[in-house]
Amino acid sequence: MAGFRTIDDMPALAGKTVLVRADLNVPMADGAVSDDNRLRAAMPTIAALADAGARVAVLSHFGRPEGPDTENSLKPVAAALCAVLGRPVAFIDDCVGDAAAAALAALPAGGIAVLENTRFHAGEEANDPVFAAQLAKLGDFYVNDAFSAAHRAHASTEGLAHLLPAFAGRTMAAELKALEAALGQPKRPVAAIVGGAKVSSKIDVLLHLVEKVDHLMIGGGMANTFLAARGIDVGKSLCEHDLTATALDIMARAQAAGCTIHLPYDVVVATEFKAHAPSRIANIHDIHADEMVLDIGPAAVEALADALKTCATALWNGPLGAFEIPPFDAGTTALARTAAALTQGGTLITVAGGGDTVAALAHAGVLQDFSFISTAGGAFLEWMEGKALPGVAALQQD
Question: Does this model's pTM top 0.85?
Answer without folding.
Answer: yes
